[in-house]
Amino acid sequence: MPEVPQPVTDNTIKVRQLSHYQFSWTAGEPGKPGTYTLQLVLDQGAWEEVLTLDPDDADNLQDLLINTETVHYDVERRVLLFGVTETGS
Length: 89
Prior knowledge:
By secondary structure, the protein is mainly beta. It has one helix and five strands.
């Protein structure tokens, strides 16, 4: 059996479920592009993360988030995991 660090705290949980998300756009300097951000609210607010995105990534992520029922986020590796499929399906 693997040894689990004690006590279990918010910092020891590595993968969390996405509860809510919000895209934002901040204007850049005149003549310069703006910046997209994606705020992730994980485990009903137990953890939050803000990602900075380029316009193509923002568009693609919005499509994935709209079309995927369950999304997880690996906090340590900063990876969004889309969907859950049972083995053998």
